[in-house]
TrEMBL record, chain A:
<keyword id="KW-1133">Transmembrane helix</keyword>
<keyword id="KW-0201">Cytochrome c-type biogenesis</keyword>
<feature type="compositionally biased region" description="Polar residues">
    <location>
        <begin position="74"/>
        <end position="91"/>
    </location>
</feature>
<dbReference type="InterPro" id="IPR007816">
    <property type="entry name" value="ResB-like_domain"/>
</dbReference>
<dbReference type="Pfam" id="PF05140">
    <property type="entry name" value="ResB"/>
</dbReference>
<protein>
    <recommendedName>
        <fullName>ResB-like domain-containing protein</fullName>
    </recommendedName>
</protein>
<feature type="domain" description="ResB-like">
    <location>
        <begin position="117"/>
        <end position="222"/>
    </location>
</feature>
<dbReference type="GO" id="GO:0017004">
    <property type="term" value="P:cytochrome complex assembly"/>
</dbReference>
<feature type="transmembrane region" description="Helical">
    <location>
        <begin position="176"/>
        <end position="195"/>
    </location>
</feature>
UniProtKB/TrEMBL annotation, chain B:
<keyword id="KW-0812">Transmembrane</keyword>
<dbReference type="InterPro" id="IPR045062">
    <property type="entry name" value="Cyt_c_biogenesis_CcsA/CcmC"/>
</dbReference>
<comment type="similarity">
    <text>Belongs to the CcmF/CycK/Ccl1/NrfE/CcsA family.</text>
</comment>
<dbReference type="Pfam" id="PF01578">
    <property type="entry name" value="Cytochrom_C_asm"/>
</dbReference>
<feature type="domain" description="Cytochrome c assembly protein">
    <location>
        <begin position="68"/>
        <end position="311"/>
    </location>
</feature>
<dbReference type="GO" id="GO:0020037">
    <property type="term" value="F:heme binding"/>
</dbReference>
<dbReference type="InterPro" id="IPR017562">
    <property type="entry name" value="Cyt_c_biogenesis_CcsA"/>
</dbReference>
<comment type="subunit">
    <text>May interact with Ccs1.</text>
</comment>
<feature type="transmembrane region" description="Helical">
    <location>
        <begin position="286"/>
        <end position="310"/>
    </location>
</feature>
Length: 439, 321
């Protein structure tokens, strides 16, 4: 225990000036005490002790001593620190295990409401989210074996083992990420309990002006015409503390999935949707069958796509139509908490007639996709299948209204397209929130 | 035809005015403050503001939709937001240091938007189906306004860091010299080195006084602008979530763009939290804001460069031919 001697010279204090006093007793170590001048005429002395080797084994305790007005004598000062320190130690020993248990919730609270901890949590969550955008999500394990091989690790250590053990292939529902979210939520709640609620309690003791007249009398008052309480709500939402919880619920209790269906075919909702969290439980609406009646596009005069439309029918178990709707982008189908929206489209097959021969069914494959300009190709073997030089035919499309058919090596063929089948990517999502709203 | 000519003229006028304003700023840096020149630069910024507004309005009338459908338009809108951030405090007769940040920002965004990199986009495109919603105006304008304010604030923080850091270096050189001077003076300089200077330091020498005042003001303004931008960003993300629920059936999809917007939000939330703590104030929070500066660019450009996810319509290909 080192004694602390402060040499206070209060008579030179002036408002808005910080004075520095260097203790003459410890000339070797640079010790600087800063003095803050306060309105209440009490002086806060902050000092950091860093004296000798043996003291440094203990913690370097930053002591904050609030000194009342007037220069206290050095002995008084050291006395307060000793008196303050000794009883707490003896209490701690006497209380024992039971007291520790009693204090546990409080200790947990104080740890959780610690600001640096919360900042660290937010940092970790941000980092994990960023990592989630770099690692492809929701692929099969084989994909990760190839992308992060063990013999050639990314950054020298990052292999597929990391990805699969920590669940980074589905980052946003992985235990690590959700655990961090829970921790952050706990921190927020602890902070609300320890800081915000006492603040509110203090604030409740303030006296408010209840009548509008009294407020208008104040110098600083101003009126806002046509303002409503909703505006205030928007402003208050700036705090946005409920956000992590919402994300958490959304991440744990929903289903998503996507399917590529050729026009005119059906699929069952439950086959497509996969759970995206551990709280996901299926509902009876998953037996619904979806039938794609038609898919078509609207165009501007310039030829650009204006809107995509899909005519969908929902059929129940008995095959009875329960709902029919033409969906478009920004106008999805909603039924019992299930939302069906379009994500993509492509050509799946082509039926052609060649010089009135045929029809030939050709499967098509995408060649290069650049936004909405789609290019598809197919291959038609011509001639003897055994001969080595098989002639090919390539068909390309820009969009579905510009169809250019180019048949290599047979420029004088007349090829007509008899039918073109489109397939459509639909994405489905199911959330309990929407389900409750529906019922 | 007449619209595109008008657009062309307005772009050029605004760009040249901003260049003139920057030149004036440089002149006022060299020559001591000339009130007339300063005033004219402010007027120039107002003129730029009106030019860009005119540009946006022309584009709106011409294309028939809110001019925020692609990268070029969003860049123009970004420079418009910078100029409005510049103008609002000016109209309130608040002389501040924002102009040193906003004017170069305007010229850089304008320059990038009109540069050869994005020539393909200058033709106003047709609104892609994904953006045909009433939420477009609300969501995208809030996001871009938020980006603009946060960029301004974080640049102010960078300036704060530069000045504090430079001060430290100078102090190091000075300290030898100062040994001759009064003992307490050296002590004060030592204290100043510690990060926590802003609150409690007061004037000891005039030079030091002005510098600490400048630092304090920079800190103050970056805090104010970032809190404003944070509110915009929050509204933008929330409206985006509502739009996502309407279009895709869930509030949050973990799309890369969404995720990065959330990371940006979290970083600036950390900044705002560090501001509340006395130990972390000052340089620490400024470092946080500077990280935020990088994150915003990743969110705004980086994700679009990849062109993945549900926000892929904002993607662009860099063609420099």
């Amino acid at each position: 225990m080192d004694t602390l001697i402060l040499n206070l010279t209060t008579q030179t204090l002036k408002p808005s000036q910080a004075h520095l006093i260097k203790s003459p007793l410890f000339p070797r170590n640079s010790q600087i005490y800063r003095l803050c001048w306060k309105r209440s005429l009490s002086y806060a002395v902050t000092c950091k002790l860093k004296t000798s080797q043996e003291n440094s084994k203990k913690k370097n305790l930053p002591n904050k001593i609030v000194v009342s007005e007037g220069a206290p004598s050095p002995s008084e000062n050291s006395g307060t620190t000793e008196n303050g320190g000794v009883p707490t130690k003896s209490q701690r020993n006497a209380a024992g295990g039971l007291g520790y248990l009693k204090r546990l919730p409080k200790r947990v609270l104080s740890v959780l409401s610690n600001l640096p901890l919360a900042i660290g949590e937010m940092f970790t969550i941000s980092g994990l989210m960023a990592l989630g955008t770099f690692i492809d999500q929701g692929e099969a394990p084989d994909f990760y074996f190839q992308k992060y091989p063990e013999d050639n690790p990314v950054l020298g250590f990052f292999t597929w083992r990391w990805v699969l053990t920590l669940g980074f292939d589905h980052m946003y529902s992985s235990p690590v990420f959700l655990g961090m979210l829970v921790l952050l939520a706990a921190s927020l709640i602890a902070c609300t309990y320890t800081t915000q609620i006492p603040l509110v309690k203090v604030a409740r003791r303030w006296s408010f002006l209840h009548s509008a007249e009294a407020i208008r009398k104040q110098e600083f008052s101003d009126t806002l015409p046509r303002a409503s309480v909703q505006d205030l709500g928007v402003v208050l939402m700036g705090a946005g503390y409920e956000f992590p919880l919402c994300v958490f619920v959304a991440a744990t209790g929903s289903f998503r999935g996507s399917v590529t269906v050729p026009q005119g075919l059906n699929f069952i909702v439950g086959d497509v949707l996969g759970p995206s969290g551990f709280l996901s439980t299926p509902s009876e609406a998953f037996n619904t069958e979806v039938h794609v009646n038609r898919f078509y596009m609207d165009y501007y005069d310039s030829g650009e796509v204006r809107q995509f439309h899909t005519d969908l029918s929902l059929l129940d178990l008995n095959g009875k139509e329960v709902m029919r709707k033409t969906i478009s982008v920004n106008d999805p189908l909603r039924y019992c908490g299930i939302t069906i929206y379009q994500t993509d489209w492509s050509f799946s097959a082509l039926q052609i007639l060649k010089d009135d021969e045929g029809p030939f069914n050709l499967a098509m494959a995408p060649l290069k996709i650049n936004g909405d300009k789609k290019l598809y190709g197919t291959f038609l073997p011509v001639g003897n299948a055994d001969s080595p030089n098989i002639k090919g035919m390539y068909v390309s499309f820009i969009t579905n209204y510009i169809i250019s058919i180019c048949v290599r090596n047979f420029p004088n063929w007349i090829v007509t397209v008899s039918s073109l089948s489109l397939s459509l990517s639909l994405s489905l999502s199911f959330s309990f929130w929407n389900y409750w709203r529906w019922n | 035809m007449i619209f595109s000519t008008l657009e062309h003229i307005l772009t050029h006028i605004s760009f040249s005015i901003v260049s003139i304003v920057i030149t004036i700023h440089l002149i006022t840096l060299l020559v001591d403050e000339i009130v007339r020149l300063y005033d004219s630069s402010e007027k120039g910024m107002i003129a730029t503001f009106f030019c860009i507004t005119g540009l946006l309005v022309t584009r709106w009338i011409y294309s028939g939709h809110f001019p925020l459908s692609d990268l070029y338009e969003s860049l123009i809108f970004l420079s418009w937001s910078f100029s409005i951030i510049h103008i609002v405090p000016y109209l309130k007769k608040n002389k501040n240091h924002l102009s040193a940040i906003t004017t170069p920002s305007v010229i850089f965004t304008q320059g990038f938007a009109t540069s050869g990199l994005l020539t393909e986009m200058h033709q106003s495109a047709i609104l892609v189906p994904a953006l045909q919603s009433e939420w477009l105006i609300m969501h995208v304008s809030m996001m871009v306004l938020g980006y603009a304010a946060l960029l301004c604030g974080s640049l102010l923080s960078v300036a704060f860091l530069v000045i504090t850091f430079r001060k430290d270096i100078k102090m190091f050189f000075k300290s030898n010299h100062l040994l001759n001077e009064s003992f307490s003076f050296g002590e004060i300089q030592y204290i100043n080195k510690r990060s926590n200077v802003l609150r409690n330091t007061s004037c000891f020498s005039a030079r030091n006084y002005y510098r600490s005042q400048l630092i304090q003001q920079l800190d103050h303004w970056s805090y104010r602008v970032i809190s404003l931008g944070f509110i915009f960003l929050t509204i933008g993300i929330l409206s985006g979530a509502v739009w996502a629920n309407e279009a895709w059936g869930s509030y949050w999809n973990w799309d890369p763009k969404e995720t990065w917007a959330f990371i940006t939000w979290a970083i600036f939330a950390i900044y705002l939290h560090t501001r509340t703590n006395k130990n972390l104030q000052g340089a620490n929070s400024a470092i946080m804001a500077s990280i935020g500066f990088l994150i915003i660019w990743i969110c705004y450009f980086g994700v679009n460069l990849l062109g993945i996810g549900l926000h892929s319509y904002g993607s662009f290909t860099l063609t420099s031919n």
